[in-house]
Write a structure and sequence with these properties.
Helix 4 (501-516) runs antiparallel to helix 5, helix 5 packs antiparallel against helix 6 (548-566) and helix 6 (548-566) packs parallel to helix 7. Among the domains are: 35-72 and 367-444, no CATH class; 474-690, Heat Shock Protein 90 (2-Layer Sandwich). The longest helix is centred in the C-terminal third of the chain and has 45 residues, at 454-498. The chain has a six-stranded antiparallel sheet with strand order 16-17-20-21-22-23, with no helix packed on it. It is an alpha+beta fold.
Length: 693
Amino acid sequence: MRGGSIVKKIIYSSAFHAAIPAILIMLFLPPLGSKYKLSVEPVDKNSSQNVYEDLNSDSISEIIRSGKGVPYFNILIMDNDIRIYDQWNLPDSIDPDLSDFFFGNFDHDRYKEIYIFTYKNDSLFLNINEFFDPEGIKSNHIYIAKIKVINKKVTSIVFPAGFYDTNGDGKDELFFSIQTGFGVEPRRLYSYDIVSRRLKSSELTGVMFQFPKMVDVDGDGRPEIFGLIGAGGNSKTWYPYSDWSGWLLIFNDSLNFKFPPMEFPGLTSRLETEAYSQSGFKGYLVSYTTESADTSVLKPRIMLFSSERKIIRERLFSDLGLTNFSNIAVLNNKNKDRIYLFGSVFLELNDKFEIVNEIKSPFNSHYRFYHVDINFDGEEELIFYSVDEEKLAVYDTDLRKLADTKLKGSENIFRFSLYSSKKHGDRLFLNAGSGNGYFMNIKRNRYFYFGYLAYPGIYIVVLLFIILIKRINTLQVVQKESLNRRLVTLQLQGIKSQLDPHFIFNTLNSIASLIYLEDRQLAYDFMNKFTQLLRGLTNDAERIYRSLSEELLFVTTYLELEKLRFGDKFNYEIIIGDSVSQKEQVPKLVLHTFAENAIKHGIMSRAEGGILKISAYLEKDYLVLSIEDNGIGREKAEGQSTSTGKGLKLAGEFYDILNQINKKPIKHFIIDLYNESGEAVGTRVEVWVPLDQ
């Protein structure tokens, strides 16, 4: 029993009651702050065009910026304090949509080279400058190929792939692809031998070969080249590997096909290829999507090929709960390749294409994704951006959101570069296009765990609220009990005041005189009615309400006694309306109080006596009780009476207290009656008792 008592005590305690809503609030409460703090610092319009690179291996980034002078385009090289080292003037036009500048170190010394492609008319040129090496290479205006120009707008794009020493001379060749819209030429993969100034290209294909990657997939020490292949269908001329289909193309470093191209028929087909290795396995991960309305084409899927391009497994995107279009990524985390698909949901898959992690996309619109080491911990983070929502979000490789922020960017592909300085340390610079540039950094929020103090704070607030409610409820109960005690007190006082000594003594005297006159039967009747009246008062001492029929019985008994005392000095009549059931609940003594007052002060003061009328009828939601006499009126009665009017005062206070409890108030009115000459001819009291109490 003791254990049960303890359990009940706990269950009924305020601390337990507060725990339930507090826990519910905590479950639905959004994260209280972020574990990481993302710093995004906008820069001015000029600085937004900067790219940062350590060109001389001194661990401090130089600033490289392109511009247009007269008559030359130029590239400025500056230090961290915006002081100019020198200006590299170029005779040809720079177009960032054609080529941004990029960096390499083909001769493996301490100095990096700047590379940029320029154009003049319909000719494409390569420019190289090993800026900080006095004896380094500086080559301008190296002809590469004819490009597509429509209405003086270049429609070709150069994608750098990387560097590799193909011929074993200790110097790397530069690999890149050129793609063009609304035409085919020059859709090729190229390598350029910087030492011998020799250009080599793959055979012409009709497909768009974008974002090429160079990775040694099969482990033979030489890279394979692959990328994003799209079937845009913007060339009507037939070429090998037409862009009316998607193709899986893998090249070797000699720019020959590693394997025969594999066709995926269907306009708008898109193939993304990534290198993938896991537990000794080496191969290619391929994502195939299409927006074609042709239902006969292959359904969107993810595929795994061996390094010999033998298909190992595949799975439909629809089986993974993805829509048609999804991006693929392979990130190396803790020396382990991890597979990701990004669409309406973010998925991480294992090597069997089973979902190991899934979260909902934070965007309701199209977004781009990037992977870059934003906090310089040696592991890349995932960065997502929606230009429509102007929102940037950062996730780790476990798909946990680190931070997000509002950021103004453009549809252009973001470019990230490392800014290193003695003054500011390491920061990531983001060129978001359209003149928007930002310094970015992400660090652990040292105050993140202080946010958990909010949880006990929530509990304390709920606990105090419940204690307050209980206190208010207790006060209301105490107040109600006080009112009840006052009602009982008033009832007792009312009982004592109702039958005043005159009434009792006069009644007893009347009984004695009847006995003296030996009218025993009348004396017995008189005594019997008096006993009934006393019994009615004492039996109902604890009640506040009683039925109308009980109240009528009590007042009738009282009136019969008064008639025995006064004979024909007065008469009375009781009228009950047809719709009154007499079960209606009314305050106890509501009729007696006013009937007694009418007899004592109104009717008995008349020489010829009078009549008392009691009526009951329904009016809307009220039972209306009317007590009317044809006495001398209140004004004359006040002048003749020595009564204190205590009964009426008690009745008024009684109703006031009841009205604090009832839904609707009890109303009573005292109406003076006059004849046509303005003389008082009586008084009517109306008591309106609500039926819904």
